[in-house]
Amino acid sequence: MLKVDALIDVLFKDLPLAERVPKIAECGYKYIETWQGGDATTLKAMADSGKNSGVELVSVVLNSPNGKDTAPVAKENLAAFVEQIDSYSDNALAAGCCQGIVTTGPAVSGRSYQEQRKALVEALAAAGEITAPKGFRLNLEPLNLEVNHAGYFLECPKESVTIIKEVGMENVKILYDIYHMAIATGNLTVFIENNIDWIGHFHSAGVPGRHELFNGETNYPFILNAIEKSGYKGYFGLEYMPLLESGESLRKTLEYLQG
After folding, report:
1. Which is nearest to 28 in space by CA: 245, 252, 203, 211?
2. Residue 239 falls in the annotated catalytic set
3. Where would I find the beta strands (DSSP E) of the chain?
4. Of all helices (H) and strands (E), which one includes residue 194?
5. 53 with 21: CB under 8 angstroms?
6. Kind of pairing between the strands at 56-61 and 99-102
7. Burial of 79 (0-12, 13-18, 19+ CB in 10 A)
8. What is the pTM of this model?
9. In angstroms, rounded to a whole number, what is the distance separating the alpha carbons of residues 123 and 70?
10. Which residues pair with 199 in a beta bridge?
């Protein structure tokens, strides 16, 4: 069974983040991730709570997919982007987390695709050089444009891998979000099998709707089996918006994935 982690931000929302950790542990999970890469205090509180609950923080978000000021596709953002990645990765490492998610931000109006792509490659390389000595990995995330992220720069997973190959750094890979890529391109299992060496992290949610994995058209047990056979040793993140009560949702999801 893969190491399945739960996105803490969308679960047990009536509780402070640190108090959600033991609740997630009670549902059978040993790993969490969060969107809160910029909040060192919150990350530390979650990590401390995790030590008491047997739960490890395994991924954070390093920049917003909607943020224009740190979007690495805009060449004028290079310094601000690298500075934020440097700072947020320090926050994560202090909480025991060794990887984070990088987004491209929105496409820049009036600029060619190639100009923005060049800026992205240069920004990822610069951020990779800053984080490599720390033992920290960056995972670049393509997102679907049709349902959730109209105007985002990067949707194609094949292009994402090509960009990562150009960056050419061991600590820069892609985040393959099965929900987003099911909407954007399909052909999930074949892509995963052919590109597993370039995938640093997985996300998942039910398609359509982005809710529980067992309520949708995607055969997640089949996909997980393929991922396991590929030799992948990383984490499989649950980034869905629960319709059920959080505890019931997490337990049923784990049963579904294990079944």
Report:
1. 252
2. yes
3. 3-7, 31-34, 56-61, 99-102, 137-140, 172-177, 199-204, 235-238
4. helix 188-195
5. yes
6. parallel
7. exposed
8. 0.97
9. 10
10. 174
Q: Is the dihedral of CA 59, 141, 213, 258 positive or negative?
A: negative
Of 56, 141, 155, 212, which is the active-site residue? Answer: 141
Q: Which two tokens stand for residue 132?
A: 């490599």
DSSP-derived 3-state class of residue 176:
strand
Q: In 10 A of CB 68, how many CB atoms? A: 12
Residues 146-156 have pLDDT tens digits of 999 999 999 99
Rounded Cα gap, residues 175 and 181, in angstroms: 11
Please tell me what DSSP assigns to residue 133: G
Q: Mind listing the pLDDT tens digit for each residue in 74-115?
A: 999 999 999 999 999 999 999 999 999 999 999 999 999 999
Q: Which of 33, 155, 212, 239 is catalytic?
A: 239
Nearest to 52 by CA among 89, 23, 16: 23
In angstroms, the Cα distances linking 50 to 94, 157, 165, 170 are 13, 33, 35, 28
Terminal Cα distance for the chain, rounded? 10
Instruction: Quote the CA–CA distance of 113 and 243 in Å, as a whole number.
Output: 38
Tokens of 89: 């990765």
The three-point CA angle 11-207-242 to 5° equals: 15
> In the structure encoding, which two tokens stand for residue 194, read together?
């052919």
Measured distance CA(55)–CA(132) in Å, rounded = 25
Q: Which residues pair with 165 in a beta bridge?
A: none
CA-based max dimension of the chain: 51
